[in-house]
Amino acid sequence: MSVADSVERWLTPRVVFTALIALTLLAILALPQEDFGEDFESLTTRSYDGSGARGVFEIADRLGWRVERRETPLAVPLDSNAVYVVLAPPSPLTTGEVSALLDAVRRGAGLFLVPQNRTPLADSLRIRRSDTPRMLVVRSRQLARDSVASRSERFSTWANYTLGLQKPIPADTTSFLTGLYFTRVPIATGFSLGRGRVVALADGGLIRNRSLRGELMGVEIMRMLGWVTPTTGAAMVFAEYHHGFGTHVNVSGLVAEALLESAPGRTALQLIAAALLLLWALGPRPIPPVAPQRIERRSPLEHVGALARAYEQVGATRLAAQQMVRGLRRRHPFGGASFTDGSYLAAIKLRHPETSQYIDTLETAMQRALQPSDFVSVGRAIDNIERTLNG
Question: What is the pLDDT of residue 83?
């Protein structure tokens, strides 16, 4: 077998398509699975499963906080004697809500948040979190020295994110949790803001229900919430509106409100109604169409043939001669409308004496009937007179 035959055999459609299918399957199997991380599930306090945050809500309630869920947007004025918990909502807070929230914190309120990069809240606090390899979560050295109840500073849990403060760190900044990754890196940090306090937790997975079931993690979360609480008995408000709860604005509602509750909207609605009415008036009606009447007319040439046959059948040689003379008058008009056919022929005879013979033939044909064989001379007379008039 030659080299050309071997190459042609390997390039047949069956071999090529089989190889492509095999390569596609291998690529799908070898493609790494996308890790959505802990942020893929919403951190809502209404969820009982392992990815929710119902546990921290119930623990805080049993430990004496006045817990509540806020299912409306954050708006001025907010209570400065409360702790606001913002757990990485799928829909970020707006700039107006961030302004109202931070104003309450500066007046003495507390804020516990799981930050999201490139959101108005994280940008205002100048907080950024970074992805890192999985690291063991440990208690900070300061809290480990101060805690007499804990036998070990390590937790049986792991974190995927670290926290970074992109501004001068206040003197009273407290590190709650750190991660072991070559050195200690911050995971949960608290700092003052005006007369209030803020705690930022980098990894939302540490506050989920599955993490709180582990040893001591629930205690550390409550320690952070207690650190930001301004006074005993302060309310703890979980922001649930941006997790999809409460009444949200929808497009159909906005359109209806704009059309019905504003002067420009009502004007637009009237214009739309008028346009629809105009389309209805101009549109087709549910009436069966009536076919237009068509009157067929013969062409002039068809009329000539029909009239000739009719005249021949009845022997109307005088009428035919009169019609031929009137045709001659239409083509060569002179004299006036008051001329009769006889006076018209007499005028031609006077102007062109050479046509006297042909004029006599026409006058005779107009006065008495002729045989069909003699009627041919009438046509010749018309031709000769017309040739003379054309010069």
Answer: 95
In whole angstroms, give the CA distance from residue 160 to residue 44. 20
Q: Whole-structure pTM over 0.90, yes or no?
A: no
Tokens read off for 116: 């999201």
Give residue 299's pLDDT: 65
- pLDDT tens-digit readout, 76-89: 889 999 999 999 89
Q: What is the pLDDT of residues 294-350, one digit of tens each?
A: 777 666 666 777 777 777 777 788 888 888 888 888 888 876 667 788 888 888 888
**Burial of residue 97 (number of CB atoms within 10 Å: 0-12, 13-18, 19+):** buried
Q: Look up the CATH number of the domain holding residue 232.
A: 3.40.50
User: Using an 8 Å Cβ cutoff, are 197 and 227 in contact?
Assistant: yes
Residue range 116-125: average pLDDT? 91
Domain membership of residue 324 as a residue range: 300-389
β pairing state of 174-181 and 154-165: unpaired
Alpha-carbon distance 76 to 241, whole Å?
A: 16
227 and 329 fall within a common domain: no
| Rounded CA separation 380/230 (Å) | 129
pLDDT of residue 148: 43
DSSP state of 240: -
- In the 8-state DSSP scheme, what is residue 354? G
pLDDT band at 107; cut points 50, 70, 90: very high
The C-alpha atoms of residue 141 and residue 147 are separated, in whole angstroms, by 10
Q: Where are the beta strands (DSSP E) in the chain?
A: 66-70, 82-87, 110-114, 127-139, 154-165, 174-181, 183-193, 196-201, 235-239
User: CB neighbours (10 Å) of residue 370?
Assistant: 18
Name the residue among 203, 205, 207 with its Cα closest to residue 223: 207
187 and 59, same structural domain? Answer: yes
Q: How far apart are CA 134 and CA 130, in angstroms?
A: 12
What interhelical angle do 356-367 and 317-331 show, nearest 10? 140
Instruction: Give the residue carrying structure tokens 């029909």.
Output: 306
Whether 311 and 180 map to the same domain: the answer is: no
List CB contacts of 182: < 8 A, sequence separation 6 or more: none
